[in-house]
Design brief:
- With 166 residues, this protein is α/β, with parallel strands linked by helices.
- It has a single domain, classed as Rossmann fold.
- Helix content is 39%, strand content 16%.
- The chain has seven helices and eight strands, in the order E-E-E-H-E-H-E-H-E-H-E-H-E-H-H.
- It is globular.
- The two termini are 26 Å apart.
């Protein structure tokens, strides 16, 4: 059973476009459905980590909003950080799923038990991962990944019961 999901940001949680205003201030857009999926995954007692190659105060704010406690920014060696997180949570690699979209995610994706890329992930990553999703990065790909894992874990009823009282 997957207990930890690891998320890349640019190209997975966001559409991968870097937008700067005239003052050099960066902006990003995040998908609300991805966010609800992440918070539901956490409410179910699972863990979430964000490992990204860039540094952004926007990502820090979004991670805090969602309750993501494992936030690692400015990471060049995602494999090393992934292994540290797994050790700290006393998990095995087969209990981890990750999503990434480009070459800097290759090592991390090759380690985990379940790997995903958005539909617009680069071809090298699409050839590597277990599942290429139907959604693009920033357009619900993370939510699609989470729902896939929930179904594979046979936890659909639990996932729905977080929000639907019956």
């Amino acid at each position: 059973m997957i207990k930890l999901i690891v998320l890349d940001v640019d190209g997975c949680l966001s559409n991968g476009k870097l937008t700067y205003d005239a003052n050099g201030i960066e902006s990003k857009s995040f998908n609300v459905k991805d966010g609800l999926g992440i918070t539901t995954w956490i409410k179910m007692g699972h863990s979430v980590a964000i490992i990204t190659g860039r540094n952004s105060s926007i990502v820090k704010k979004r991670a805090k909003e969602l309750g993501v406690t494992h936030l690692h920014q400015g990471i060049r060696d995602k494999d090393r950080v992934l292994k540290e997180i797994i050790d700290s949570l006393d998990l095995a690699l087969y209990e981890v799923a990750a999503i990434g979209d480009d070459l800097n995610d290759y090592g991390m994706l090759s380690l985990v038990g379940r790997s995903f890329t958005p539909s617009n992930g680069v071809s090298y990553i699409q050839e590597l991962v277990n599942t290429t999703l139907t959604k693009k990065g920033g357009d619900g790909a993370v939510r699609e990944m989470i729902e896939t894992l929930v179904d594979e874990n046979d936890q659909r009823e639990e996932f729905l019961s977080v929000w639907i009282k019956g």
